[in-house]
Specification:
single chain, alpha+beta
């Protein structure tokens, strides 16, 4: 989660922005924003201390002769003091922001670099439509101790170092296939020209860039076969991925990464929130929130459940430009439920292909998903879906929550068909949607 300075931050900005979900139909409306301002505690100050200005006068100047001074009202002084406290608290809170976690060291080769290059020029690796790809296990593993989680996952976690025009970006990555595909954050490799990864053993390899998506902040790297010659059977340890949709608030989680270059650092915590909408570098991301300690260098590293499965990719944390130590326990990770489609698209196509639009608004209600409305001129309307219907199955899988339907949609592309089983006025019927429109 990068330490890129965000220019233009002004005192008095909004303290906190929370993008609330639109309850109708279970869908989020990106236009709905609630602004929250936290007022200072108005309790009376018991004692105050004024430090003299360095180099200035420490004693009060003598009063001029011949003029009387009206005593100040103690009440007025208290009000003024409270106003100052309010301004100070406002400035401190306004400086809080969400930042990426990639650590970036400055590097000046003879001052030859004059500007930042955002284009990725790391040697490339071709996309492969036959690649095995990333898959999620829908079965949670048996609970492990922290030591067991570390022994299982740490060999598959790498430290990522990318040389760019503005310095060396240091983050974390996780190997997800035995033939050397690595997942990390896009901002870790952004602007990179060469990239190396280091295993927990200290063995370092140069890697190639396969593809990346800036909107989802994900990138795929590949260890060339020649770099595997020193490995047994020319393979690498790799991590298994679990389903983040099975997480609930309070579940224990672990993070492994290289905060501040400290390779192989394990931290632990819990899931603090699910589906938290957070604005990062001007775009809204739906993330997992955790209180597991995340710091610069953890970017791209795994968030792990107690079964030793990767359930998220660490991406950002709340930090403060005013006091970087003042915000703790507010870290965020990309849910693994979103990774499967994105990573496999990057592997096979070199880009993320859009999901198809269904054209229905639903909410969880027994015995399935209640259709509250159907958009005109959409696949759902053409197939005969009506408001008041219940969707009890999609592609043969039972529907109980909105996430069940979203999970099915993530497996589909424009041009595919979706079969829905409906319950209408006590009668069961089946319709097929021709998915010819992409989600905007």
């Amino acid at each position: 989660m990068g330490e890129r300075e965000q220019a233009g931050r002004l005192p008095g900005e909004i303290v906190e922005v929370y993008r609330a979900p639109l309850r109708t139909g279970g869908q989020r409306d990106p236009r709905e924003i609630t602004e929250v301002y936290r007022q200072p505690d108005p309790r009376e100050v018991v004692e105050s201390y004024c430090r003299p200005v360095p180099g200035g006068r420490t004693d009060p100047p003598p009063a001029r002769k011949g003029r009387s001074r009206r005593p100040r009202s103690r009440k007025s002084g208290l009000y003024r003091f409270l106003i100052c406290v309010a301004v100070l608290v406002g400035l401190t809170a306004a400086a809080k922001t969400v930042e990426h976690l990639a650590h970036r060291d400055q590097w000046r080769p003879g001052d030859a670099v004059h500007e930042t290059r955002e284009e990725i020029t790391i040697p490339s690796w071709p996309v492969d439509q036959e690649a095995a790809g990333l898959s999620l296990s829908r079965t949670p593993g048996e609970p492990l101790t922290a030591q067991e989680v570390y022994r299982r996952l740490n060999p598959a976690v790498v430290t990522v170092q990318c040389l760019s025009g503005e310095g060396v970006s240091i983050g974390t990555g996780v190997i997800f296939s035995r033939d050397g595909y690595i997942l990390t954050n896009h901002h870790v490799v952004r602007g990179g020209s060469r990239c190396h990864v280091t295993l927990d053993s200290g063995y370092s390899m140069e890697v190639c860039f396969v593809a990346g998506d800036e909107d989802s902040d994900l990138a795929v790297l590949k260890v060339p076969p020649g770099e595997l010659m020193g490995m047994p059977e020319h393979t690498l340890p790799f991590a298994s991925f679990g389903d983040s949709e099975q997480l609930v608030v309070g579940d224990p989680v672990y993070a492994i990464g290289a905060p501040r270059r400290l390779r192989g650092t394990l931290t632990n915590g819990i899931i603090s929130a699910i589906d938290r909408d957070i604005e990062v570098e001007g775009r809204t991301m739906t993330l997992l929130q955790t209180n597991a300690a995340l710091n610069s260098g953890n970017s791209g590293g795994p968030l792990i459940n107690e079964g030793g499965q990767v359930v998220g990719i660490n991406v950002a944390k709340y930090m403060s430009d005013w006091n970087r130590d003042s915000v703790e326990g507010l870290g965020f990770a990309i849910p693994s439920a979103y990774l499967e489609r994105i990573v496999n698209d990057l592997l096979k196509w070199g880009e993320v292909r859009p999901e198809p639009r269904l054209g229905i608004w639903v909410q969880a209600e027994e015995p399935g998903l209640y259709v509250s409305s159907v958009d005109p001129d959409t696949a759902a309307e053409a197939a005969g879906v009506r408001a008041g219907d219940y969707i009890i199955a999609a592609q043969g899988e039972e529907m109980h929550t909105n996430q069940d339907l979203f999970r099915i949609r993530r497996t589909l592309y424009v041009g595919d068909r979706l079969t829905l089983t409906l319950l209408r006025e006590g009668e069961t019927l089946e319709v097929t949607l021709e998915l010819n429109e992409a989600v905007e």
